[in-house]
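Q: What structure does this chain adopt?
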Amino acid sequence: MTMQLYYAPGSASFMVHWLLIELDLPYELRLVDFASRAQKTPEYLALNPNGVVPTLVVDGKPQHEAAALALWLAEAHPQAGFAPARDDPRRLDFLQWMFELANEVQPLLRQWWYPGEVAGEANAEAVHAQVVQRVARHWQRIDAHLAAHGPYLLGATPCVADFYLVMLMRWARNTPTPATGFAQLAALAQRMKARPSFKTLYEREGLSEWA
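A:
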């Protein structure tokens, strides 16, 4: 199997790139330069009509949606234990976390970074105020869950949703209510960032903040 990952440093491709490294899979990196809006060019839109990253080309076929790609990678490599099997009693909890992060938390944080997409640049402050309140409620609830059922989202060992959560926590690093302001979330982030794959990810994407 040959794979090429179209990515931008620190973006939604972060989680997929991290998992490729964690699972020790062969892949090629293809930078999508956001500064020049390369994600909106006809060439890139032919790969990903949404004009976003990631795109993972698998044996010549382009695939997208970060959460779907992460879930596929985990299920294609069950030996890593990052996704409960269908008959595992934790399976529904796992899917619930994946969809909650994808449908609730990630869109809110995208609004934080791109408030103009929601209400125009003139209303960015109002958008930020709403996002901060809503994201903080998610952090509070997830932190309480980790306190009762952690140290990871499904208990004793990490799953794909933990990788996803840490990516979103990183996105929120400069908000007034960062996830690391909550004790259990801060501890989870520290554990996940201690994985050798995280260091490699930062090196390959040229990142330094929130290391």
